[in-house]
């Protein structure tokens, strides 16, 4: 059965609509049916800019989605295409983006769609719109009542997950504790099994400090927190090794010996991931009751509206959403 994939509009002043339309010209409509949730004049405006020839069907409910077509579910947002101002940070764009995400979550929770792909949002714009969340991942956790959600970046066999997500660097050390690491390892292991079909996943865990603390000379977190957490996780049947120094680990391609890597904080995991994924990385929210993927880039306001954005990451996010939806169906 074809999977129905919801797509949230993202910030319409960013590159989201552009990469979405470009990607929708390359997907396999025999495997899935896309449902774009947003403001139709935005889709029309960018379609004209890109000379798109996509087949469009307007629907009022996800259950009306027509196979072989890009289905557009209108949000009812009050703006018009004249409100689109590529490159600008605006409250209206932030509000519309979040309303689209919220509708996508609702469609997935009610089994009207099988997965949600989110186009990039601007954290500044959504804050102007009154949303007090640091990003998609945290908002998804709130709306699905999920206590343990894990941000995982995926590119084929390269998978990098995070213990802390969108946190200031000066707060990271205080947020690293044994229970948090163990809980992240549990979510990661379950996702590798259930979503990716890996029977006995092997996970590498990075240290917090340079050289993984160098035996306690450059910090004690590895000795006092991370190593005990790994020992307890092993007792629970989780195959986790470490802590490894982050630089040497990726530099020697040790990551290729593991099914996933658990990094302590955002840049520790995302800088090497984005370097190695060559613009085709996908952000996947593990641990949610729904499937959610997104491209691993932001709104890129500097090139918005200029037909310069590369759709590779968004296309990969859409394709992974279809694959994960098929995998979860096989688990039932």
Describe the structure.
The chain is an alpha/beta fold. Helix content is 39%, strand content 18%. It has a twelve-stranded mixed beta sheet, sandwiched between helices. The longest helix has 20 residues. The protein is globular, with a radius of gyration of 20 Å. The two termini are 14 Å apart.
The rounded distance between the terminal residues' Cα atoms is 14 Å
Q: What is the oligomeric state here?
A: single chain
CATH domain fold name of the largest domain: Isopropylmalate Dehydrogenase
Which of globular, elongated, flat, extended, rod-shaped describes the shape?
globular
Order of helices and strands: EHEHEEHEHHEEHHEHEHEHEEH
Strand fraction equals 15-25%
Largest sheet: 12 strands, mixed
> How are the strands ordered across the major sheet?
3-4-2-1-5-12-11-6-7-10-8-9
Helix content: 25-40%
What number is the mean pLDDT? Answer: 94
CATH-defined superfamily of the largest domain: Isopropylmalate Dehydrogenase
Structural class: alpha/beta
Give the domain tally.
2
> Tell me, what is the CATH class of the largest domain?
Alpha Beta
CATH architecture of the largest domain, by name, is 3-Layer(aba) Sandwich
The number of distinct β-strands equals 12
């Amino acid at each position: 059965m074809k999977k129905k994939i919801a797509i949230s509009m993202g910030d319409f002043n960013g590159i989201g609509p552009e990469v979405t339309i470009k990607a929708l010209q390359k997907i396999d409509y025999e495997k899935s049916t896309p449902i774009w949730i947003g403001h139709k004049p935005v889709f029309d405006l960018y379609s004209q800019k890109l000379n798109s020839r996509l087949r469009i069907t307007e629907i009022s409910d996800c259950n009306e989605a027509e196979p072989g077509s890009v289905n557009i579910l209108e949000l009812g947002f009050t703006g018009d295409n004249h409100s689109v101002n590529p490159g600008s940070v605006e409250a209206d764009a932030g509000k519309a983006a979040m309303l689209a995400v919220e509708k996508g979550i609702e469609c997935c929770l009610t089994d009207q769609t099988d997965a949600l792909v989110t186009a990039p949002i601007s954290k500044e714009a959504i804050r102007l719109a009154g949303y007090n969340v640091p990003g998609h991942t945290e908002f998804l956790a709130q709306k699905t009542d999920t206590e343990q959600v894990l941000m995982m970046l995926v590119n084929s066999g390269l998978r990098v997950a995070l213990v802390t997500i969108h946190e200031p660097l000066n707060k990271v050390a205080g947020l690293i504790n044994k229970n948090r690491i163990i809980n992240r390892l549990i979510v990661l292991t379950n996702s590798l099994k259930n979503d990716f079909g890996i029977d006995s996943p092997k996970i590498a865990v990075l240290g917090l400090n340079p050289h993984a603390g160098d035996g306690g000379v450059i910090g004690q977190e590895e000795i006092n927190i991370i190593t005990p957490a790994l020992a307890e996780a092993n007792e629970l049947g989780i195959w986790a090794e470490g802590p490894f120094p982050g630089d040497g680990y990726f530099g020697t391609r040790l990551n290729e010996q593991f099914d996933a890597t658990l990094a302590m904080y955002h840049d520790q995991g995302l800088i090497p991931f984005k370097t190695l994924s060559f613009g085709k990385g996908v952000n996947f929210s593990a641990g949610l009751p729904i499937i959610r993927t997104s491209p691993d880039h932001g709104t890129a306001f500097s090139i918005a509206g200029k037909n310069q954005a590369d759709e590779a990451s968004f296309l990969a996010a859409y394709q992974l959403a279809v694959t994960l939806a098929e995998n979860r169906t096989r688990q039932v």
